Amino acid sequence: MAVKVSIPTILRSHTDGQKSVQADGGTVAEVINDLDSRHSGLKDRLVKDGGLHRFVNVYVNDEDVRFVGGLEATVSDGDSLTILPAVAGGMR
Amino acid sequence: MLVIRRDLVDAMVAHARRDHPDEACGVVAGPEGSDRPERMIEMINAERSPTFYRFDSTEQLQVWRAMDAADEEPVVIYHSHTATEAYPSRTDVSYASEPNAHYVLVSTRDPHEYELRSYRIVDGVVTEEPVEVVESYMFAHTGGDDIPDLG
Lengths: 92, 151
Hints:
The complex is a heterodimer of chains A (92) and B (151).
Chain A: E1 2-6, E2 20-24, H1 28-38, H2 42-46, E3 47-48, E4 51-52, E5 56-60, E6 63-64, E7 80-85, E8 88-90
Chain B: E1 2-5, H1 6-19, E2 25-31, E3 39-43, E4 52-54, H2 57-69, E5 72-81, H3 90-95, E6 102-107, E7 115-122, E8 125-129, E9 131-134
Parallel strand pairs in B: 1-9, 5-6
Antiparallel strand pairs in B: 2-3, 2-5, 6-7, 7-8
């Protein structure tokens, strides 16, 4: 399953500055593994302790994957996967 | 240094006051590479909390896509602190992930006087920067001459 992956500014050092790259996989986890094999170091920025890192949002098409199975969310041929930094904070 | 129009400062402060005591948050988009904040977008604080904020992820995707389509980027990312000073907390620093953005903090702890300060946060290092409030960008030194000023 070939998908187009949008890379946020903060992670483009892993993709030679490219805004979007191709990857393969039938689930978000598989896509991330494939991404990491092509762009070393990306997985560590996206996954922590077997789940999605709290500092990032990952979307399959328009859907935040946290609401549709997390790393096990399915991905189909031609889907787009978007990675955005989570924007959050607080007074503590 | 952050150079920003007065109407945008007023709008950020008004948003922070309106949502007080919860934290308010949003972005000011500008042409990519211009370093010039032009278009303010109030974001939903998905936490609706006086001590924490988080952009609603679905709204964020829409807003980021719209910026992308318009060749814009988040020039300012702002949020309010409602009981403490306008200085980035440890949580703010750990989440900061737009190396090109000015992180603006508005404190509304004083009901009469607001405090607005701006920071660069890169690789966990916080650097405060001066804020110059201008009436218009026409005579301010922002961005390149090849990028038309909309303000």
